[in-house]
Amino acid sequence: MAEVVEVQNGDLTCGSLLHQLQKIWDEVGETDEERDKMLLQIDQECLDVYKRKVDQAAKSRSHLLQALADANLELSTLLASLGEKTFDGIPEKTSGTIKEQLAAIAPALERLWEQKDKRIKEFLDVQTQIQNICGEISGGGDHAGKVIVDVSDLSLKKLDEFHDQLQELQKEKSDRLHKVLELVSTVHDLCSVLGIDFYTTVTEVHPTLNDATGVQSKSISNDTLARLAKTVVTLKEDKKQRLQKLQELATQLTDLWNLMDTSLEEQSFFDHVTCNISASVDEVNVPGALALDLIEQAEMEVERLDLLKSSKMKEIAFKRQGELEEIFAQAHIEIDTQAAKEKILALIDSGNVEPSELLADMDNQIIKAKEEALSRKDILDKVEKWMSACEEESWLEDYNRDDNRYNASRGAHLNLKRAEKARILVNKIPALVDTLVAKTRAWEEEHGMTFMYDGVPLLAMLDEYAMLRHDREEEKRRLKDKKKILEQPSPEFETAFGSRASPARVVSTKKVVGPRSGGTPNRRLSMNQNGSRSGKRDSSTFKEDAASRVSGSEPAPSTP
Predict the structure, then answer these.
(1) pTM to 2 decimals?
(2) Domain range spanning residue 272?
(3) pLDDT of 528 higher than 80
């Protein structure tokens, strides 16, 4: 036993073990047959052990070969994925043991894996940006899903394509952001002009569009752009409609002011309304210029003026009528003023005519009246001269009839000078009347109507004057003949002072007198009977005589 332990503690070999086994068999007394059987068993067991080891070795080699093949395949796959044809560090020759070959290719694989991981990160970064921008454009935001990188193609060419796509998207994003900011600015300006709350308006389009968010955080989606554009169109249409409404109100205000002769001070309160009466939509940019409260204020003012218009219109219409009557009066055209005023009242109270039309019609009447007065001016000036001459003629006759006209009384020399001038003027009367008759007839022929003077045909007045003048001349001749019989004054005396009328004469003479009062044409053509002044008739009586003579022979002319 001690021997066995010794052997065990020593170096064990197959020979030593077999020697020990032989000793044990000898001691035991094993037969040769048993011994051979045991030896065969031992050989078989040894063979099995070797076989297992060989199998294990073969399997290990197979694994190493597969690992080498996988490494080469991985190497090829990585190179293809990265778009590389070659790579520094890959052994050109495949010599050496399997483990040596694996050891040689391992560093290249490790570096390629590192490069692949780096490339994947680059792809992930650029694709994430692309996806985010696409999400902003589509409106999906950060809910577009996880980015998946295609590891089969990690080439620089593919990466450059993604970068190009990213640049295009970034440019589109910049353009969209610029468009959004431009539309937001337009909305702000429109809201300012219309008096609408800007923040409420843009927040309804998208919450990110107010000033509280940064520029890069603003929505640039298709929906946002579409809603912004629609909002701008709506606000512009609203602005257009409000401007049209305001301009209509401004026009109404202007018309009412003109109708009612409103003072400039009162009109100035609505300068902010009338300043845009002819402005285009794009020209109205003042904040609050088209606010609803401003339009309502203008509407209220129009309503207020409309209520005052009826009573004010009567006052203005009567004022226009007064102007018309003044023109006719100065032109000596007779009109029915009472009937005209009653007609104005009836038109205004009926409401069947617009006040502006009524005033426009009256303005046209005033224009026509001025034109008619202008066409009559030349004749009226000559009528003025004629009546003035008649006044002087009447005065001269009274002067000649005065027996004391040559006395050295105060002012006698002035009367003498006036008498000399009056004789010159009186001598011009026939020519003046002839000219006046010719011009009057030409005027009547041109205008197709009778020239009326204060309701009396002027030609009839001139004819009446001519008849009176003729009768007066006849009376003068008869008187002169009687004077020659009754008195024989010395030639020297008559030459110096003119003939003197007898104080006791009873023969009547006809005269034309025309005193003036205040420069107004209020003259009288009168007849002096029996040398007294009690037989004077005013101009209306003379006109009635002329009118009665015309009515006896022809229809009375219509009043202009």
Answers:
(1) 0.53
(2) 155-290
(3) no
